[in-house]
Design brief:
Oligomer: single chain
Strand content: 15-25%
Number of strands: 14
Structural class: alpha+beta
Radius of gyration: 22 Å
Helix content: 25-40%
CATH topology of one domain: Aminopeptidase
CATH class of one domain: Alpha Beta
CATH architecture of one domain: 3-Layer(aba) Sandwich
Strand order of the largest sheet: 10-11-12-13-14
Organism: Microbacterium rhizomatis
InterPro entries: AlkZ-like
Protein name: Winged helix-turn-helix domain-containing protein
Length: 365
């Protein structure tokens, strides 16, 4: 059987699954367990993406120190491959980590084999000295890592990344922007290897679908972290949208309880990350324009998608000037003209953001 959904139903499923409804989650761990991953990005035109994603869910009860504490003290959250993840996800990740790199990744396997002494040097040094940053570890590689990108000859960083993907090292925290690396068994709890790789991947697909609510079987590509859901969940069609989707059954049951709110989203928010999905379900056109020349930008350097109820309605072009103590609003781009109630709700949310950041808001009427 194929379910038939309206676009509004599909949007509400997506929003509720991302915890962007009126019923807010209570803390960092609850958000991570619902979303499965939270993006880490250093761009902080407003604030770091992880803090923004957590603030947009939890609201005023969230403080940035809570995330740091969850990672470095409570060990309820960990960092891997550019995302924060709940520690409860570790049992589903370990099977593929222990088999990494996969056989078809020959370059990675050959480089690790050629630099096995380098690998052991790093593990022994961290084991003896304790947690270290990449700049505190000497490069004893025999074969440099070759790449046409920024990783070329960055041998220490590459080996640390590889050892984390293999579950031999883990990120214990950060000193400023520098990651601090430690032996995995000093960061991660002991976990029984109770899943095969195939079993774990199936369960991860179910978790991804639960966090998205509705998704294509194969969605937008993203380095390292897949967002494909395969054939888990229920098959569905969305009115006016070609093709089929997969829907989380629990999200369907919660549809009647949907109660929306207004939110300013990070450009890296999972609700809008898949630009094709955002266009299909929300009719929302969006890209991050910080890499474009200023004259070619339509919405601004780091415009924030604006959510109102069950619709994405525009973009906020704003920047935090912490030296001046100001959140400067350059423009609010309305995809369709706002009515008075919507305009007031968006202004209120912008002022709330400025107050939470400790900044005076400039640029609103």
């Amino acid at each position: 059987m194929v379910l038939r959904l309206t676009r509004q139903e599909a949007r509400r499923i997506a929003i509720a699954s991302q915890r962007l409804c009126a019923d807010r989650p209570g803390d960092v761990v609850e958000v991570l367990e619902e979303l499965t991953i939270v993006n880490i990005d250093p761009t902080a035109a407003i604030m770091p993406s992880a803090d923004h994603i957590l603030w947009s869910r939890i609201g005023w009860a969230y403080e940035p120190g809570q995330l740091k504490s969850a990672v470095e003290i409570d060990r309820t959250v960990f960092e891997l491959d550019g995302f924060y993840r709940p520690m409860s996800a570790l049992p589903l990740l370990l099977p593929s980590m222990r088999a990494w790199p996969p056989p078809e990744w020959r370059k990675h396997r050959h480089w690790l084999d050629a630099n096995d002494r380098f690998r052991r040097d790093i593990l022994e040094r961290i084991g003896a000295e304790g947690p270290l940053t990449a700049r505190e570890i000497p490069d004893s590689s025999l074969v440099p890592w070759s790449s046409t990108g920024w990783t070329n000859n960055r041998n220490v960083t590459q080996m640390l990344e590889f050892l984390a993907r293999r579950g031999e090292l883990a990120i214990a925290g950060r000193r400023g922007r520098d990651r601090v690396w430690d032996l995995a068994d000093r960061v991660y709890p002991a976990v029984d290897p109770r899943y095969t790789v195939a079993e774990a991947e199936l369960l991860r697909a179910r978790e991804r679908l639960r966090s998205q609510g509705i998704a294509r079987e194969k969605a937008a590509a993203q380095p390292v972290e897949p967002i494909d859901v395969g054939v888990v969940g229920e098959r569905a069609e969305v009115e006016g949208v070609p093709g089929t989707w997969r829907v989380d059954p629990e999200a369907l049951q919660a549809l009647e309880a949907f109660e929306g709110r207004t939110a300013l989203l990070s450009p890296f928010d999972r609700l809008v990350f898949d630009r094709v999905r955002a266009q299909d379900l929300f009719g929302f056109e969006y890209i991050v324009e910080m890499y474009k020349p200023a004259a070619q930008r339509r919405w601004g350097y780091f415009a924030l998608p604006i959510l109102r109820g069950d619709s994405l309605i525009g973009k906020l072009d704003a920047a935090a000037d912490r030296k001046a103590g100001v959140l400067r609003v350059a423009a609010i781009h309305e995809d369709a003209p706002f009515d008075l109630e919507t305009a007031d709700a968006v202004d209120t949310e912008i002022r709330s953001l400025g107050e939470w950041l400790g900044l005076r808001v400039e640029g609103l009427a």
